[in-house]
Amino acid sequence: MIQVIGNRDTACTACPHHEGAKSVCIPMRKLRGTGQAYIAVVFVGEKPGLDEDRLDKCFVETAPAGEILHKAFLGYIAARVHRDVDFYGANAVRCKPTVGASVTETQASKCCDLYLREDLEALSRSYTRVIVVATGGPACKAIFGVSVGLALRRQGKSLTDRFPVHPGTELAGFATYNPGLLLPFRDPSMSEAIPDHLSMVVDFINHGVIPMEVKVRRHYPADKRPRGPVSGTIFSLDIETYGCVEGCPEQTTFHPQRSVVVDRCPVSQLVQTVAITYRTGKSRHSCLYILPDEWGRLVSMLEAIVDGGGHILGQNLCFDLKYLRFARRSVRRIIDRQRMLKSGSLLLELSVANFLDNDMRPERSLKSLSPLLRVWDYSDETDLSSGFRYTDNRDPEENFYNVVDTVATLESWERLRDRTARRWGSSTEKFSEGCLRWFSDVLWTCLEMDESGICMDRERLGRLDAKLERRLERLDGWARRRWDLKLRGTGSEAPLRSLMVDAVNEAGLGDDSRVVVTRVKGISISKENIHLVLDRLPVGSHLRTVFRFREASQSANKIRTHYTKVLLSDQSRGLIGNMAWPTWFPCPSRSDDDSGALGGTKQGRLTCHKPGDQTFPAVIRDCYMSRYKPGFIMTADSSQIERRLMALFSGDPVMMREYIDDLDAHGLTGLIFVGALYSQMKSRNLNTLYGAPKSEVCDLLTYMDGRQLTRATAMKVRSKYRWFEVWRQLGKTANFLMGFLGGAETLQSTARRDNRIELPLGFCREVVQGTARRYAVFTGWQHDLIEETVKKKRIEGPITGESRTFKGPLNWVRLTYPTNIVNFYPQWGAASIIKAAQREITDTLMERGLLSRPFTNCYDAVKIDGPLAELDEVRAIVDNHMDNPAFYRGLCDRLGRELPLAHEVEVKTFKGK
After folding, report:
1. How many domains does one find in the chain?
2. The pTM is what?
3. Residue 615 within any structural domain of the chain
């Protein structure tokens, strides 16, 4: 019986982890089995833990992660396999790192090359099949050469190209997450993902393969119309673009506008083939169109689908449609929002179905999701990212690959729909007609913003970039001359960290718990620490100037590095001429290039990448310009929408009344601050505190006694008592912190960071408690919502079916996720209302034949670009839809109460040249 595999090299110095390890180079060992099996399963972890190092064994059962691996991982597989299996364990890095040190992917790969390679070769002499299960990021990198996310696409893939074995022995690899993620207070969301992965290992042991249940025939004519009823039928569509065939430019970007300019691809070559798969009864049909020869047949097919009321499904459907619509005007006329609306035709997205079924599932690309659902195994498919290309667009393998994607997408959609029905029950809104129509509208919004792009003033960006560069040079020069100090770049961190230690001591903060300290490097030079010492250092201290310089340098460098330089010099992510072309995402999903990057959020917000327009600082947003001359940019910003939804969902009468009577909610909370401020003045016998005179504070409190602070009254108060503006802003901060369960400590740190005011913790507690008393019904609703969600372990929004799942023991969910739970309804509701308003604004603009269009969605605001002649009409359309979209009316009907919405409009005009 093989107990320990491979030779131990106690003199190994390949990485620094041996230096602090008690047991150097802990070898692979047998975990379970009779020794008579023909199959070996090898679990590869990240590194030894404390118990492993002490006992000189990997995956010790008494260690927390080791116990989970033995009971959950090995136990799951052993209970389900029909053959004898021997289990082994090893680590990607075989020496325990010192405290605070982490394992790098390079170290893991090197260690595996040194030792695991020989171990697997030794196992291959005793077993006919060896299965390696990589658990966690470093292990996946060492075994597969890629990240966990990409390794999940390679389940069951042969590893003989990376680890040579004895002839006749099969070596296959699987990936999952580290067993430590299932520990309490780690990540219980993996409690479903890991069994899904292990079930594939079980199938592979039992059958020799992961059995896929779908077969694809190699016969797919270019039909002009569907073979059967169209209305309500789902047509799965997928395109292959120029990057997959020889003779075309290399595809480095994934937006048609960029493809033409950056990759220099002719429009006629953008789309090479298009596949469509659909079902009539029990029969499945697939069609393939080789372009440009079969554009006519494809257009006829699309026309029959759309006008007949069929639905178009895809994975990353917006990517496919924007290339098709760009490449052929006739397609743009057919796949048109207004035309499809009339026929009842919808856009459907597989990533949306995946999100509706399980918002925590890590598999979000078709190539990782499809084998998980036992639809299709992509492990043997050609990897186009490696540089391989098909000979041309008539290559049978290219055609098959294109059709397979449509079949896998359709089959996966159907399985996810059925899974959702079983998982969520008959009461769920998921996959309902309203849900599908909602997401079809969202897809249209994303597609239209993809195609619209963002117009920016390149010359102004250039001037800003030059200004930032000059500022950085001045700051660097001053720091070098005054203190012989670097503010940024290599070699700057250690001297600044040393100065931060001096600043903390000089400010008398040596024992202050608010000072941020990292486990490895000690006192941090973070923004929080900089603000803390700046507020405490003596006025004449040179360290005040040092850290003001550092802060200014960081701010300027970030804007220049992340925004101006990228926008001006990188056409794949920045400007082409004056236009940027971001890609928009409707839900958490893989990015357009399937690199593993994520787009979309679980709160229902739209997001965009390349560039990330929604994260632009104010100085970058100031560089927006209209594409029309003369033109305008209009920003319609919903007023306090998340807090209004807090009032609506909770039904808090005080909060509701503030909005019904048009009171200044932030000013009212600001008055709570002023009351606490006055108490501090009296108790400490002060005439002035934080710039507020005691006499004026008393006058304001007397004036407001028994009086409602309407918006008009608030304007007068802010005009007469200028110091009140600071406390109103803090009232705004406190209101949102209360809505998201922020406590006194958070209020204190936020006031320090944003307002440069150091409030005593007791003062902050007084304000937090006063706010909770004022909105007692709302705080009670938050508590009840948390308890209800803890029991159900999920929360679902009405109408759209979007949801959040919270896995784990009751106390774990209660302690870990309360903020996520109470955030859900306000954030999801606000995002949904803005999306609905944007959709209705766009529809009205189209119906009236106007050129103006929304071009970006900033969570609670919409920006519209249009000709100046349309300004007044667009303003009226915006005012009509921003405060009363159909989605909001439906939400009020569900809740049985109403609350007025409000918005603000800002217009910037541009003259013609």
Report:
1. 4
2. 0.90
3. no
